[in-house]
Design a protein that fits this description.
Number of strands: 16
Structural class: mainly alpha
Number of helices: 60
Distance between the termini: 39 Å
Helix content: 55-70%
Largest sheet: 6 strands, mixed
Number of domains: 7
Amino acid sequence: MSLWSVDARDVINHTRSPGGDKFTKFVDSLIRSQAFAGGLPDAFVHTNIQTNQPDGGVDTLVKAPIPNDPTGRFGVPSVWQYKARAAVDVRKAQLLRELQNPFVKSNLLQGGAYRLCVCDSIAAPKKANWEALLRIEARKLNPAAPDPLVVSADDLAAWASRFPSLVVEFFRPELAGAALPLRIRAKSVIGNTPLYIDVQARMEVETAIMNHIAFSVSCKHSILVLRGASGSGKRRFLCECLSKIPGADGTVLYVDSEDVGRVARTLLVDQSVTAILVVDDCDTETRVAAAQLIQGHEHRIRAILVDSASRQACPDDAIWIDPLPSQVITDILDRNFPGVPAERRLAYLKLAGDNIRFAADMCANDRQTTVASGKGAVPSSVPDYLAVRLTQQESKVAEALSLQMKVAFKGPAQEEIVLLSYWVGMDKDELIEMANRLESNGGVVRKVGRYFRVAPAVAARALLASAWKTRAEYDPAAFLMRIPPRLLPSFLDRVQRDASPEVRGSVSSYFLQWATTLQPQSLADTATTDRIIALARIDPKPYLSILRNLVHKASREGTLNLLSQAENGRNPRRKLVWLLQDLGHLQEMFDEVESVLLELAVEETEPNIANNARRIWTELFRIHLSGTPTPFRRRMEPLKVRLLSERREVVSLALDALDGIFEELAVGHPSPTLVAGTIPPPDWRPSTLSEERECLEQAVQLLRELSHGEDSLLVTGSHRIVISRLRHLLRAGYLDDVVAMFEARNISDELRASLLEVGEEFVQYDVDRDSEKPEQAEAYVLQVRQWIDSLIPRDLHGRLRVLVGKASHRDSTSAGEESWLAEIRALATKYQQSPTSLLNDVEWLFSDQARSAETFGRELGELDEDARFLDVVLEATRHHSRIEFAKGYVMGLMDSRPHLTGRLSAGLDEMEVVAPRAAFDLSIGIGDAASPVSRALRLYDKGLLTPIHLGNLLRGWIGHSIGDREFRELFGRLVDAATKGKDELARQLALESLTARIEQKKRSGEAPVVAHRQTRILIWKLIEAGGFVTAEECLHWLVVLKELMGAEPTRTIRAAVKGLFEGEYALSDDAEKVSVVLARANPDEVMREVGRLLLSSRHGRRLDITHGRSLFSAIPHENTMNWLRSNGRRGAQKIARFLPAPRSTPDGQMFVPPLTEFVLTEFEDDESVFDEFCAGSWYVGGLAGDIAGRYREAEESAKRFLSHPLRRVREWALRATHDARESAERWRLYQEEIDLE
């Protein structure tokens, strides 16, 4: 029987008591829980505890049926009586008298039903006899009366097992470590403030919670996420919401984040269980795992996840709970501590930093404070309060703990508590004992997993100050000198977060001499870099100056890359960038931060990280979201200096920063809450639209100056910025400035083309045609159009370069694009009329600058009636690699002059000699008449084309689909290149074209690709060569293998199983899918092939455990047993690790899978077989989610088999429980440490 279920003995032992109050409370809870689960309002359930009336007074009335009742007891209104006694004490005459109760009689006459609950097991015959007697008596009163029912302890046990919260509350208090019922959890949540105040602003959230937990209402998501900042009262609010609903407490379970996976999986096993899981401090990983587990079971299992986070980090699907208003906090203290004068309550709240828990602790200990102070005054500070609240010894322990952010007292890191006790001169055991006492009754120490920590922050700051005064103030150097190296990082972290300026200064001064001895190569040591970064957070000015000198010197010496050499996965450079990003929020640190970031940005080694040094440095100069409170005008000064630097790489960076000023969709980074012990000011931003305009004008003016300078890098860079931001500049009304940036120079045709393209985009997409002043808007657009027109030269040569230099958008239907196409057609007409002009420009048409050369070529080809330009185009094609103009011209010529096919084909034949690839490309434009397939094969066989050309051809071309023979010819060449030449690209192209062909045949309903024998030979040649690595290749491989199943199953089996053993992970994943399907249809063949590879010396240990398990579960165990009978011990040793582990059935019975039982029986004396089985049977899945929980489940499952009749199963259970217990504890401690971080 599961720990989460109960039996009749549990009901009798835990609820039978004199007076019957426990039994009544238990059954009432059951009824209300069932009503809640079914959606019956509580107003229809009436309880009246009359537990000791001699006439058996009525206990509960259910005035309406409960919808969707799974018990069969609530189909009609019903009256309930409880007997908290043994069945032998219930007499026949007494049974009959029960129905004579006036209230019972009235209910029966109205068509209600009678239910009798007895706190005892009742044999089935006796129970049936009782119900028959009651039925006869009820029918005397009402012939149509529903059948009375007797509900025994066995019935109640099965019923209660549907509600795990009631199981824990009434029967399994030992489970409270993993899950707490609402009524028990509420006690700790309520704490010192039992009286609650509803907040009107939260009513909408309360409604959302009520709807989510109502099982009678369907919900879209199985989980509801509540988020709010620490101290917002979200946990108390949720607890109060749940407590308002009668019956809900029988379904609510509070579960720790680390236990939710295990608890949820346990509850999901029993399909009758109803529960609402509430998870505190839930991280993203737990949230995702919980959603995946519960999804699909929301009709009976739902979850509410509570998390502390910032508003910015709150996901869209979470409900954000705002902090309690100050007045509400005040009212809470007023109601709960009326005996504490109002002025004292307010003083406590202020003293606690608005932390309601700490303030409540102060109010709860007000009398102690009053007596201790003598004068009855509120302590003037947190230290004064703690001096009264804590004993001298408690203070010493709390102060010692405050020297660290957290201290491990058990587990692998327990050395920390030993070192701390040595440092502060205390006994370790005494320190731990006192810390535990403070955790339960002290208000300032929290125990999280294997760590102690001091909380809240106001207490930590006070205790740290006291610890420093007591232990270090007289001789800071002596105190700091004794810090164990292992504790130093955490101490420095505590100082930078919570120390006073005086303490920060003392710590800074002590380490300053050490820091001045550092050399650039010191940055390669992670511990050294971590320390100086921590010190820079404590006292930025001196240490950032030292860091700047080190970074600059390392840059000059070429050793800056040492920062990027990660040690044990820790990258000093990343931490340094984080430091600089944070210190940038201090205006006085701007110059130092900018200088260091610049050097790191110049030698950027983290290009794929969003907040790398280059990105952070360039963002410093933005108008908005700059990450600094330094005014924009002040930041422009160093930017101008960088633009004039002699270092070209610095100039390039500065140009990027200038470009970023015009970024319209800037994305910022969250600001730190504390920097160097102070709350940083907000980022600078314009206070008015006119101030923002002034900033933009400064940037535009700087662009103008750069564009008129003599430095080619700056001129080119400024032009690049203008083009990339042209639409923004034009929208902002800077047309005159843009014009001025280009009018003084003879700009290139390429630049004109880019300006023309972007300018037309502005006119098409950005003009505000609904402007409040349409006449001004139209006038401005007219000016932009005039400027665009002025960019197009009047001469034919210039127009070609500008119009054809612009990118083509032939699919666009905009007016601007149509106008441009009309210009292209007119231009083609001009060149048709002036052949000499084309000869002069043909070289440019084959260049990269002619971005729309194909469009122009097509228009020219359609106009060229007598193909006067054909020879010129073909000749030029021979000498250029970029032949888009020729392609367009040939397609246009063929569209209008198909009779020229022969002439074109002959020209291509001649071209093959000097430009084979160009001849091939043009042949596709001509089509079948130019025989592109045979031409491609001929050229490929001569080594003049690459597999890429064949791959492109296999896709077909306009008006032509590749035939089966052509496909085999082309595909065969790719297969040869992939298998003989080991060409990876050819293998990829062959797979892609093959899968595309397979899908094409399926869509058209034609015979499958593998129907042709020669094609199959080529496919097998490719498949059996192997080498598939990428996920995309493996996907193609899967498609092909599935296609081959029907044609050649035996060979397909061999290939699939080989993929399981030899493939990379992605391939073996797909091989498993194929192998499982084949194993179900061809078990003997698959088992033979798997066995052959398992027994081979090369492949025997290469089958992944998850894939092996999946495969052997698909092969019927009889087939595997037959193979084992032939291969004996050696075979058993090979498959033992893939055998399924013993498990419990849903009804709690032990079950050993037949194959496992066969192996452990037949090879009982073979230790190798047993060891392999144990090694594989306790694999609990990947290293993600609730790992500790899975091991705990494994332990509980294994315990049941300690009494199994098979010796090897008992031994396995003994070993498994021990290993699982150790693993669960190890992973639990690890997760606690991660969560605490």
